Amino acid sequence: MPRRGHLVLIAGVPNSGKSALAQALSAAANVPTLYFSADQDPWQTTTKLIASLTGEQTNVVAHNLASGIGDGYYEQVLSDSNVVFCFDSKPSLDDVAAELDAYVDTWDEYPEVIVIDTLRNVDGNGEKQDDEWIISELHGLARRTRACVFLLAHMSRTNVKNSTRPPGIKELVNKLDSLPDLVLMVAYDADAETLWVAVGKTREGRADPEAEKPIPLKADFSRMTFGASAINTWDSER
Fold first, then answer.
1. Which CATH number is 7-231's, of 3.40.50.300, 3.40.50.80, 3.40.50.10710, 3.40.50.2020?
2. Measured in Å, how far apart are the chain's first and last C-alpha atoms?
3. Distances (CA, A) of 120 to 116, 130, 182, 188
4. Average pLDDT of the segment spanning 48-64
5. Which of 8, 62, 138, 149 could connect to 182 by a Cys-Cys bridge, CB 3.0–4.6 Å?
6. Calpha distance 193→10 (Å, rounded)
């Protein structure tokens, strides 16, 4: 279960549903959230958030936004959401810290959730500041701010024989599973409209590092919604 003060790694091969799951969790939890959307532009991200919050299809939302239909309604939907976005395409950890400072200046508290989408987009600012260093810093950030930090990361396709099932944790690029408190590996089966989620690492209960028993979640990517079991797992305990 994602908890405050924890670093949660959501991993999968490209186009496996990592961002979709993170956005749906953020929208459904609706707790104070700072979302670094480096991998998607404002139009894509805003359209998907509105779809997730309203249940409308993303193409309908996009059409309505482009034509000015329901402007007031969509503005209210976004205003009622507790998700705040940063769209820097290559943020450094200094940029993350600056955005957090601005968030605290505005709201007088840290967000409960911080999402970094994705690790590949974070600027290490130097050859010694590699992925391992970045994860270490984000692990410390989670402890320091008491926020649940979600970090999205890529997995290798090299040994993946079935792209509709999550790879084992050994396929995590750079083997960065030592510090996260929870590692979720995901894969999307479009034919079955199912997002498969395997718990590769957890500090609570039993893990499934080989992804032999992934959990199926009914996925409607057209509305950015998932089965109830995917969106009722936020622990806001302080």
1. 3.40.50.300
2. 14
3. 10, 10, 19, 20
4. 95
5. 8
6. 19
